[in-house]
């Protein structure tokens, strides 16, 4: 099905199942420990042996020699694989660095070897016996030092300019020109990268933890230089991804190589200490923001530049993305520059671009409101735009930023906010902060298959994943709505490359794209049911387990009495996203308190108001947003991969040193969804919300801390040493 005109009325609009708060159908499996995660029990042919990955001990250089003889003789060891005996390897399209080092080393903790043994302990102990001689070379590890050599990129990453930014900024009566920094961050998901690999002849099956089944299937085949038909990738449950599992990573490759060498299924879970440097991370940024305003508060000039680094051949952190679209202003510029750094591979982490971009922009907006003597909510409302400010003939498909800000302000009691440092509660200084939320809505082609059997059970099959987001549930809701059956009559099967290729889970495109793909398959199944029953033509209504056409009715199960009915289709998105800018909006409100003596900061209240199209399942969507808000508090106050600038690695490579919020750090959180349905994005009229929930949170916390203390911190995380 091609989606290229705005959606008319369709069966989803009834909203009898879709849109209803629905507990996760996979919830009981997860809380009882019965949901099989990658490292756990599967239909594996044979008892898996254990693989232990050895990471490179230098950030850059070459391997002069590797002596594996002692490791190979160690008790229980079945195989040791290094680049010397791995066979010829290719590289996946989505990988910047190779997943197995040698002879060159591209980053610290790049995999150098996998040891396969009968037990995990034997593999770990033997890995310590591998003797690697490295020739270490100097690398670039410091973004600030590499900043001046950073280069502009092309395509979507190229600089943008509208009007006369320099002139308008210079002549603005009120100006702001500030630098902000965001640190390298780690996804720090609970379940590490993990895979069980098994070979049967030339055929390879991997049970893994991956957000994008088809991308990683293709990249695993490309890396192993084998036909993609001979690989099957299964990823039914994922213990968190946040973008770290968008791509094939070393666990899957090393398990596959280890299993081939040991002639046994092999399981590899990347050890926690490898996660920070072996896996990808969100790159740090240096951002410069210039705002020029009239005394009336209207933005005349808005400029945003960002610098980030990555390995040779890597990409930018696209931190200026929201600045192109969020506020009006006739004169504008954005620019991003990429430095080559020899730190581990940078890549997408939840809301790549907007998350760190808004951490800077929304502090700048707070600073400018203060210079203007305006309320920060009113300042943002005044500078709203209903068209793409870089391309004014292009409207937003839907844009309710102003309502998010205004409804949120009322709900939060924003009018009680006082000037900086004016509110005390015992030893605590208390303040409120606001930030706008913005994240683009992306759509991806997505396919699904639906089956109807003689008992009236509907089975959904797609390679779509559930990364803890609630995919199983919204897919079941979609099929139930389309076929007029109760949720209990729907079985959802996900995360298997033998199923139709879906959008996968990334960039907050998953929910809308994958349910739209299922919608398309259900339209076909409905037609097949009507035809089988001989009920056509005429408009069919599916409800209560029955189909009605004119005055004829039957149980849908009757259509499948003589055999299962199967329908498959995909949704393909035309160019509606070129005609209309598709984005999601929101507003974050935070109340924070800072201890006047110790500088300890605590978040006291949080509110998010989100405008993200139709909300398919308010329970799951709220969970996404409160999780994102929690992550935003981490980004504001705690999270930072500390770079060793001499040797080029992230020092705090475990969950003791890389701090994220715990329950005790997080207060009551409230989430409000604006009642919307966006007919320009898909037949579901839904948009993404999981990343929107993070966008702006960090700045709202920063602005609340400023309002509490009167001290402005522009370098994240806002730790107490920065304002004492
Ligand atoms: Mo998201 S960072 O695209 O999983």
Topology:
Elements: E1 2-3, H1 27-31, E2 49-55, E3 61-67, H2 69-73, E4 77-82, E5 104-105, E6 111-117, H3 120-127, E7 131-136, H4 143-146, E8 151-152, E9 160-162, H5 165-170, E10 174-182, E11 194-200, E12 203-208, H6 213-224, E13 231-234, H7 250-262, E14 266-269, H8 272-278, E15 285-293, E16 299-310, E17 331-340, H9 354-372, H10 376-382, E18 395-396, H11 401-412, E19 424-425, E20 428-440, E21 446-452, E22 458-461, H12 471-483, E23 490-493, H13 510-533, E24 540-543, E25 546-549, E26 552-555, E27 565-573, H14 576-579, E28 580-581, E29 583-595, E30 601-611, H15 618-637, E31 643-644, E32 649-650, E33 669-673, H16 697-709
Parallel strand pairs: 1-27, 2-14, 12-13, 16-17, 18-28, 22-23, 30-33
Antiparallel strand pairs: 2-6, 3-5, 3-7, 4-6, 8-17, 9-17, 10-15, 11-12, 11-14, 15-16, 19-20, 20-29, 21-22, 21-27, 24-25, 25-26, 29-30, 31-32
Helix pairs in contact: 9-16, 12-13, 15-16
Bound molecules: dioxothiomolybdenum(VI) ion.
Tell me what the structure shows.
It is a single chain. With 724 residues, the protein is α+β, with helices and mostly antiparallel strands. Among the domains are: 353-441 and 582-722, Aldehyde oxidase/xanthine dehydrogenase, molybdopterin binding domain (Aldehyde Oxidoreductase, domain 4, 2-Layer Sandwich); 443-577, Aldehyde Oxidoreductase, domain 4, CATH 3.30.365. The protein has a seven-stranded mixed beta sheet. Strands 8, 9, 10, 15, 16 and 17 form a six-stranded mixed beta sheet that branches. The protein has a five-stranded mixed beta sheet with strand order 1-27-21-22-23, covered by helices on one side. Helix 9 packs parallel to helix 16 (697-709), helix 12 (471-483) runs parallel beside helix 13 (510-533) and helix 15 (618-637) crosses helix 16. The radius of gyration is 27 Å and the shape is globular. It starts with a strand and ends in a 15-residue tail after the last helix. Bound molecules: dioxothiomolybdenum(VI) ion (MOS). Dioxothiomolybdenum(VI) ion binds at residues 211, 241-243, 246, 348-350, 352, 506-507. Dioxothiomolybdenum(VI) ion binds next to loops.
């Amino acid at each position: 099905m091609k989606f290229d005109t705005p959606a008319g009325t369709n069966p989803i609009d009834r909203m009898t199942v879709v849109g209803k708060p629905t507990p996760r159908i996979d919830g009981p499996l997860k809380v009882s420990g019965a949901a099989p995660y990658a490292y756990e029990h599967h239909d594996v042919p044979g008892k898996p042996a254990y693989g232990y990955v050895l990471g490179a001990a230098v950030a850059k250089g070459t391997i002069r020699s590797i002596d594996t003889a002692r490791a190979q003789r160690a008790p229980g060891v079945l195989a040791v694989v290094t680049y010397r005996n791995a066979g010829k390897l290719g590289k996946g399209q989505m990988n910047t660095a190779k997943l197995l080092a040698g002879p060159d080393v591209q980053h610290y903790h790049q995999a150098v070897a996998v040891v396969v043994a009968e037990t995990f302990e034997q593999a770990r102990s033997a890995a310590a016996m591998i003797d690697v001689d490295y020739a270490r070379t100097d690398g670039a590890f410091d973004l600030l030092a590499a900043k001046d050599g950073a280069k502009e990129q092309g395509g979507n990453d190229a600089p943008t300019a509208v009007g006369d930014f320099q002139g308008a900024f210079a002549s603005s009566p009120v100006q702001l020109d500030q630098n902000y920094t965001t640190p390298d961050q780690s996804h720090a998901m609970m379940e590490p990268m993990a895979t069980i690999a098994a070979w049967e002849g030339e055929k390879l099956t991997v049970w893994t933890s991956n957000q994008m089944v088809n991308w990683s299937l293709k990249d695993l085949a490309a890396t192993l230089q084998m036909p993609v038909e001979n690989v099957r990738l299964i990823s039914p449950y994922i213990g968190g991804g946040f973008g770290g599992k968008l791509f094939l990573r070393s666990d899957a490759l090393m398990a596959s190589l280890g299993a081939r060498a040991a002639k046994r299924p092999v399981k590899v879970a990347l050890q926690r200490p490898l996660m920070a440097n072996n896996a990808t991370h969100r790159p740090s940024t240096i951002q410069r923001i210039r705002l020029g305003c009239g005394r009336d508060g209207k933005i005349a000039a808005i400029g945003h530049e960002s610098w980030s680094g990555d390995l040779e051949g890597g990409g930018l952190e696209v931190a200026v993305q929201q600045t192109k679209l969020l506020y009006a202003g006739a004169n504008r510029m954005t620019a991003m520059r990429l430095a080559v750094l020899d730190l581990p591979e940078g890549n997408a982490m939840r809301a790549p671009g907007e998350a760190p971009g808004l951490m800077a922009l929304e502090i700048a907006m707070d600073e400018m409101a203060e210079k203007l003597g305006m309320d920060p909510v009113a300042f943002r409302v005044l500078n709203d735009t209903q068209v793409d400010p870089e391309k004014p003939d292009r409207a937003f498909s839907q844009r309710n930023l102003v309502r998010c800000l205004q409804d949120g302000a009322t709900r939060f009691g924003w009018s009680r906010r006082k000037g900086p440092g004016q509110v005390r509660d015992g030893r605590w200084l208390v303040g409120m902060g606001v930030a706008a939320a913005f994240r683009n809505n992306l759509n991806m082609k997505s396919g699904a298959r639906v089956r109807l059997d003689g008992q009236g059970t509907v089975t959904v099959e797609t390679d779509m994943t559930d990364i803890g987001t609630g995919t199983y549930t919204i897919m079941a809701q979609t099929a139930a709505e389309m076929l007029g059956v109760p949720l209990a009559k729907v079985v959802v099967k996900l995360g298997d490359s033998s199923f139709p290729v879906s959008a996968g889970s990334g960039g907050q495109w998953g929910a809308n794209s994958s349910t739209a793909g299922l919608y398309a398959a259900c339209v076909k199944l409905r037609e097949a049911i009507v035809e089988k029953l001989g009920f056509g033509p005429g408009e069919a209504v599916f409800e209560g387990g029955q189909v009605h056409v004119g005055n004829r009715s039957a149980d849908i199960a009757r259509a499948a009495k003589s055999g299962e009915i199967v329908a498959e289709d995909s949704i393909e998105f035309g160019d509606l996203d070129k005609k209309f800018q598709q984005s999601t909006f929101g507003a974050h409100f935070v109340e924070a308190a800072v201890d006047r003596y110790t500088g300890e900061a605590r978040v006291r209240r949080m509110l998010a108001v989100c405008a993200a199209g139709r909300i398919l399942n308010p329970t799951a969507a709220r969970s996404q947003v409160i999780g994102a808000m929690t992550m935003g508090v981490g980004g504001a106050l705690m999270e930072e991969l500390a770079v060793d600038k001499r040797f080029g690695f992230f020092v705090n490579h475990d969950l003791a040193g890389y701090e994220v919020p715990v329950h005790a750090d997080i207060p009551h959180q409230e989430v409000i969804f604006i009642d919307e349905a966006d007919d320009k994005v898909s037949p579901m009229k839904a948009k993404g919300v999981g990343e929107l929930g993070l966008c702006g949170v960090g700045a709202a916390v920063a602005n609340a801390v400023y309002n509490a203390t009167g001290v402005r911190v522009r370098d994240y995380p806002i730790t107490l040493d920065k304002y004492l």
